[in-house]
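From the methods appendix. Each design record in this collection lists the tokenized structure first, followed by the designed amino acid sequence. Records were kept in a plain field format so they could be parsed without special tools. The example shown here is representative of the layout used throughout.

RECORD:
FOLD TOKENS (392 positions):
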């Protein structure tokens, strides 16, 4: 299967990929376009997650590429970024499912778990046999989770007792395990726990009425005297610094997803404006519509250059928190402009699911806010460049 560079990859950033990586991306793109594109609008409207796509997604390798234990071939962070882009280009909810299962849940165990925990859990998560979620945000602690977590962990012999609440936790209505971040009552440090969702005292309820990423099942979680053995505490998570190490990689991936979402909207608008005739010619032939399309392409091209570079830094072990934060803040802001211009170019049809652009327009809002809002990521970069923390 041959890999066709996207026309929206205007400066051919995909040139850096290896043949093996291109082949995997070509296979993924074909699968997404044949199996996901035709059905996803209906799932979006019904606010239902396409559970039947999880096994084939795992077979595509998207849950395996990042981990030594499971990767089918050596691959780069740039390649994995293009995977996130291809997923979001077709559907940001499917991309978010993968981001949670792979980047956040498996990533927590990969970054902060012991060798034994890695060996036990990563293969099961990569095959989709075990579904995971990542519980950091709380009803009263979102942006300030580095210092404001209220969920507590108390050591009791060989067990830990967790109490508190979590909000917005993706995949958590159906996950088998949820990584719960909680403050140790003894030393006040944030620690991570692999919590099987069947544990007594764990309850998850779906958040209804979302206008963005409707298929993603976000949950409110209540933890009442949830007991987990010491063996399920992430052995290398000793403070929020370790949680931040997980987010460093996933934030860059959200930036890639933002580029994919922007490309999806741009491509939908380009196709629509070439077909729609007004004043006797396709609206794509009107100067002001071309202006919208070119502004979209400019945003996509600038953001793509940025995310490729951030992933190259990751591949060389040089990626810092502020690198990911700038890419996330910048790419999501450009995405938000892009989907709005794309939707505008489609007129009234820009707000109905049938013409696709509406879904990207709505989904952009969640990507803009999750994994650190633009303001929080701006403050992370601001601290790095000035030496002054301006969070409070
Ligand atoms: P708040 O923290 O209440 O912020 C509200 C506004 O105030 C924002 O604009 C923010 O930038 C601004 N603000 C706050 N503090 C400051 C400040 N010091 N200076 C300037 N402005 C400030 N979390 C998880 O743990 N796991 C998940 O799987 C997960 N999935 C999510 C999926 C979706 C669809 C959404 C919407 C959220 C998800 N989240 C998840 C939570 C997400 O990370 C938070 O929503 C996000 O961090 C913002 O927190 P908040 O919503 O509580 O907003």
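DESIGN:
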């Amino acid at each position: 299967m041959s890999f066709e560079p996207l026309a929206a990859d205007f400066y051919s950033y995909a040139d850096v990929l290896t043949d093996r990586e291109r082949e995997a991306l070509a296979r993924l793109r074909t699968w997404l376009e044949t199996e996901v594109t035709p059905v996803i609008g209906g799932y979006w409207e019904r606010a239902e997650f396409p559970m039947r796509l999880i096994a084939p997604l795992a077979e595509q390798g998207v849950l395996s590429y990042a981990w030594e234990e499971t990767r089918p071939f050596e691959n780069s962070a740039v390649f994995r970024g293009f995977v996130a882009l291809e997923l979001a280009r077709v559907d940001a909810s499917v991309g978010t499912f993968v981001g949670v299962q792979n980047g956040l849940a498996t990533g927590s165990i990969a970054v902060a778990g012991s060798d034994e925990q890695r060996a036990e859990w990563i293969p099961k998560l990569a095959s989709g046999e075990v579904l995971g979620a990542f519980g950091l945000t709380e009803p009263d602690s979102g942006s300030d989770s580095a210092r404001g977590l209220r969920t507590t962990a108390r050591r009791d012999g060989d067990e830990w007792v967790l109490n508190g609440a979590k909000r917005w936790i993706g995949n958590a209505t159906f996950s088998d395990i949820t990584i719960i971040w909680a403050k140790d009552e003894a030393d006040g440090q944030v620690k991570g726990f692999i919590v099987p969702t069947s544990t007594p005292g764990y309850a998850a309820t779906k958040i209804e009425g979302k206008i963005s990423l409707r298929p993603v099942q976000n949950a409110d979680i209540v933890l009442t005297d949830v007991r987990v053995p010491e063996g399920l505490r992430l052995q290398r998570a000793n403070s929020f610094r370790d949680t931040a190490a997980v987010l460093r990689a996933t934030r860059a991936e959200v930036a890639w997803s933002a580029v994919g979402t922007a490309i999806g909207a741009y491509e939908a608008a380009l196709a629509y404006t070439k077909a729609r005739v007004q004043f006797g010619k396709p609206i794509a032939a009107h100067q002001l519509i071309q202006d919208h399309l070119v502004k979209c392409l400019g945003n996509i091209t600038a953001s793509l250059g940025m995310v490729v570079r951030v992933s190259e830094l990751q591949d060389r072990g040089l990626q810092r928190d502020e690198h990911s934060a700038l890419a996330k803040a910048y790419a999501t802001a450009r995405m938000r402009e892009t989907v709005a211009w794309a939707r505008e170019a489609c007129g009234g049809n820009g707000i109905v699911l049938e013409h696709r652009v509406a879904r990207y327009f709505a989904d952009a809002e969640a990507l803009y806010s999750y994994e650190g809002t633009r303001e929080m990521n701006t403050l992370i970069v601001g601290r790095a460049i000035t030496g002054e923390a301006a969070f409070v």
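APPENDIX NOTE: The chain has three domains: 13-127, 132-232, 240-386.
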